[in-house]
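Dock zinc ion; give full complex structure.
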Amino acid sequence: MSKNATLCFKVSDTINCPKCKEKKVIKNGRTKNNKQQYYCKTCCHRFIENYSYQAYN
Ligand SMILES: [Zn+2]
């Protein structure tokens, strides 16, 4: 039994796009480092979960 989940896009309401700051972000699979990848539907920008991890020093 295999379900095709391509049509099952879940829009996250916790993650903003680091580029346009919109929240129309969907999950876009994982990288080979097993990090969650996201895709912004507003500006078509792809980014990784902790991409904007620059505030902590
Ligand atoms: Zn964006």
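Observed: The mean pLDDT is 78.
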